[in-house]
Amino acid sequence: MICSYCGTEGLEDSCSFCGANLNIKRPKLKEFVVLEDVEKPFNELACFHTYDLLVLLRLVRKERAKAYDLMLTLKKAGKSPQIEEVMVYIQKTYMSLIQSV
């Protein structure tokens, strides 16, 4: 068996060079990844392909940037009661996005 991580040949259960377990199934690419996947527990995210995780990270960062831009726009808008309510909601959303990254 050939190690799919480092390419070492002649192995059976684990790689003698990198220590990888060769009996586990490697993750496959998904057709699509949605922003809601970020709420999944670590055990499920660990089964995602690296490319899928990078796409998910890009989606979260894009959403975080939108929330931050909206927060800055509202700060510039002024101090009316309706804007302050929206501002609190946006700040909570932004903070939750930062914590998920």
Keyword list:
101 residues; mainly alpha; 51% helix; rod-shaped
Quick structural overview:
The protein is mostly helical and 101 residues long. Helix content is 51%, strand content 0%. Helix 2 packs antiparallel against helix 3.
Question: What is the element layout, followed by pairings?
Answer:
Blueprint: H1 42-45, H2 50-77, H3 81-100
Helix pairs in contact: 2-3
Give a written overview of the molecule:
This protein is mostly helical and 101 residues long. The mean pLDDT is 82. The longest helix is centred in the middle third of the chain and has 28 residues. The chain is built from three helices and no strands.
Oligomer: single chain
Number of helices: 3
End-to-end span in angstroms? 37 Å
| Content-based structural category | mainly alpha
Shape: rod-shaped
Please give the number of β-strands. 0
Measured by DSSP, the beta-strand proportion falls in: under 5%
- The whole-angstrom Rg is 21 Å
Q: Average the pLDDT over all residues and give the rounded result.
A: 82
Poorly predicted sequence stretches spanning 5 or more consecutive residues: none
Helix content: 40-55%
Topology as a string of helices (H) and strands (E)? HHH
Please summarize the sheet with the most strands. none
